[in-house]
TrEMBL record:
It comes from the Eukaryota. One of its GO terms (molecular function) is nucleic acid binding. Belongs to the mTERF family. This is Mitochondrial transcription termination factor family protein. It comes from Striga hermonthica (Purple witchweed). Keywords: Transcription, Transcription regulation, Transcription termination, Transit peptide. InterPro entries: MTERF, MTERF_sf. SMART domains: Mterf. GO terms for biological process: DNA-templated transcription termination.
Length: 312
């Protein structure tokens, strides 16, 4: 335990959870982790997140799972980061959980791979599994969640986006997931639309109280409740951002004018890509004007200036 350079109280807390006769195991685990190029910081992170990993048997518990990760292409500099961020992968059942569940995720990535190479698929898998430490869901739950989301029209890159950003959502019980989607539909999102995934993401990542507080912020600034709902449907990432994030920008001179511009440009069908509203908000003024106003006619530029000045 000393070799991990933990403060005394932290080392004592971890050691107290395990019998004295197991004290020799940590040194074997540390030696094995060092052979995989884990730094002291990597090992500290892994042990803080999952102390049990320090007392696992190297040959029967750790090595088979590390070998499996390497077979998936998660090797080199990615492996130490993966272990540091999600050490539960090393304490979960290899055959009952890891192989079937990760297999489900990888099949989704390969199904929508497009022109992606194996290296890019492996990198996506790395980002998904190292997002944060969690107990990966079982195969049946993952498959049923993916099937339901597909039935709602959330497929391809949108499904992968959810896997990358909200992997815990795929462990939700089906009634809870259906309730989340129903809530999004009640707020104005349509089943099968490309915006539904952003509504689901925003509702999942924010409590009802937080959503209400953000809506209240807009209402205090003069928006009607119906307008707040419309804004959420048009740009759900505004609600996904923190309240402090919203307060950074002028509602009248930046947020509303840019939202109106994006609605108008999208309605003309001239955009090849649809950036998130957060991306649009963060753009410098010159960049926004060049990308979304100057090339689409003088009338749009005149309208934008009126909106910025508060004219209807």
């Amino acid at each position: 335990m000393k070799s991990l350079e933990f403060p005394h109280h932290k080392a004592a807390t971890i050691s107290s959870r395990f019998p004295r006769e197991s004290i020799q195991k940590p040194e074997l685990v540390i030696r094995y982790f060092k052979s995989l190029a884990l730094s002291t910081a990597h090992m500290q992170s892994a042990v803080r997140r999952e102390p049990l990993v320090l007392y696992a048997d190297v040959d029967t518990t750790l090595k088979p799972k590390v070998d499996f990760c390497q077979e998936l292409g998660l090797r080199g500099p990615h492996l130490p980061i993966l272990i540091a961020k999600n050490p539960k992968l090393l304490t979960s059942s290899l055959n009952k959980k890891l192989k079937p569940s990760i297999g489900v995720i990888k099949r989704v990535l390969e199904c929508y791979r497009g022109k992606s190479t194996d290296d890019k698929i492996n990198l996506l898998l790395f980002h998904i599994l190292s997002r944060y430490g969690w107990d990966i869901g079982n195969q049946a739950r993952l498959e049923s969640t993916i099937a339901y989301l597909k039935s709602c029209g959330i497929v391809g890159s949108q499904l992968i986006m959810l896997l990358k950003t909200e992997l815990r959502l795929f462990s939700m019980r089906e009634p809870e997931l259906k309730g989340l989607v129903s809530q999004a539909v009640e707020m104005g999102f349509q089943m099968g639309s490309r915006m539904l995934v952003y509504g689901v993401h925003a509702l999942y990542s924010n409590s009802p109280e937080t959503i209400s507080r953000k809506f209240g912020l807009f209402e205090e600034l003069g928006f009607r409740k119906e307008e707040c709902s419309l804004m959420f449907v048009k740009a759900p990432m505004v609600a996904a951002g923190g309240v402090s994030f919203l307060l950074k920008f002028s509602l009248e001179r930046r947020m509303v004018p840019r939202l109106r511009v994006m609605e108008l440009v999208k309605s003309r069908g001239v955009l090849k890509r649809h950036p998130s509203f957060v991306t649009v908000l963060l753009m410098m003024e010159d960049e926004f004007v060049n990308q979304f106003i100057s090339k689409y006619g003088k009338d749009l530029k005149v309208a934008y200036e009126k909106w910025r000045l508060g004219s209807s």
